Each structure stands twice: as C-alpha cells, then as structure tokens.
Amino acid sequence: GVKVYPAKGGVAKKNGTGLFAAEFMKAFPLVPVEDDGRLNDPELRENFIERVFVYSRWKESMEVIPTPAAWTAFHAAHKLLIMAHSPSSATGLGRLAAGAGDGRVGEKSLVYLSGLMAALRLPATVKKNVNVLQHIMGYFKKQLTPDEKRECLEVIGNYGRGLVPLVVPVTLLGHYVRKFEQPYLKDQWYLHPAPAELMLRNHV
C-alpha cells in the first residue's frame, strides 16, 4: 500500500500498489505477498508466514517432475491446515488431488495451487481451529484415559474462550501424536506449520 498523488494535486483517499510490487504480483500471481505494515498484526503475520512455507513445500514437492503420488501426499499432509482456513476448500481440493492420476498433472496442479493459496488467505478463525483440534482429538478417543480426555477438552475449551494461545492445545495434541505414534497425524503440517523458533502460535 503506497500513497497515490493524482495529477491534479493532493493525495488520493485510496492507497495504490508500488510499481515493483505490481509487476512482481503480475509475474508471480501465486507467490504469497503482504504489506509490511500489516505484519505487525500477529494473525496476519502468522497467515503470511504460513503461506510462505506451504508454497515452499509445494515447490519442493512438485517443481521438477509433478507426479500424482507427490500431489496426493502433499494434500494429505496439509489437509488439516487447509481445514483450519476453509473446510469447503479442503473438500474441493481433496477431490482435485484424488483425480491426479487422470492425466495432465502439471496443468491440474496449477489449478490446485491457485485454489490452495486462495483458501489459505482466508483467516484461520478460533472456531475453525477448535473444529480441527477436536477432529485431531478424535483419533485418540480409544486410547486416552477419561482424565486425559477431560484435560484435552478443557485445554481446547480454554483456547476457544481466548484464555490460552493456540500453541497450548497444539502442543498437548502433538504430545499424544508422538505417544501413540499416530502415522496420519504425524505428517500433518497443521501441528508444526513453521519452525518453532518463529513462535507463530504463541500470540494467536
């Protein structure tokens, strides 16, 4: 966002886009971008950094020779992360990835990537995160003791009420993923979308 100075003088009420930024977004429409001033907001900052890492993992998985196996594995590992932003997109993108073996993988994968980045731009609200956290907890319903179930529900509930940050229930559920060696959840990027050093979820 930059100030616009019309030819007649003064400053326009609506900000514009810098020349370099406009050309960059035109040349690379799927690369995550964000105004640097907006990164002072913890939720917007987390959203942007999360998208950067998702885009990087996609390029690593599909850059050289996009294959149906790589595509479906990528979607499976990001399904819960997508659900936290857009449950409907998670379903639609899942169907697209499931048809990866029908041919034209390269062309279809670009459609998928476009839909993925659009879905991740949507905010991961508390309500949607609670839904994902409860979904994860469901994988352990036969393994957790009654006291552990109560603790999980209490921690998720505290997050839902704004009493603790997202990192608290995510850390607890991550503990159970390791304890019970749950293979599907072990690969879910929702539980660790970026390096721990960035401490993204400590503030949302």
Short summary of the structure?
Helices cover 60% and strands 0% of the residues. By secondary structure, it is mostly helical. The two termini are 25 Å apart.
Task: Give me the secondary-structure topology.
Blueprint: H1 19-27, H2 42-62, H3 68-85, H4 87-98, H5 105-121, H6 126-137, H7 146-160, H8 167-180, H9 183-186
Structure description:
This protein is mainly alpha-helical and 204 residues long. Helix content is 60%, strand content 0%. α2 (42-62) runs antiparallel to α5 (105-121) and α4 runs antiparallel to α5 (105-121). The chain has helices spanning 19-27, 42-62, 68-85, 87-98, 105-121, 126-137, 146-160, 167-180, 183-186. The longest helix has 21 residues, at 42-62. The protein contains nine helices and no strands. The model has no long low-confidence stretch (mean pLDDT 92).
The helix tally amounts to: 9
- The run of helices and strands is HHHHHHHHH
Largest sheet: none
Which percent range fits the helix content? Answer: 55-70%
Structural class from helices and strands? mainly alpha
Number of strands: 0
Mean pLDDT score: 92
What distance lies between the first and last C-alpha atoms, to the nearest angstrom?
25 Å
Query: Which word captures the global form?
Result: flat
Low-confidence stretches: none
Strand content bin? under 5%
Gyration radius from CA atoms, angstroms: 20 Å
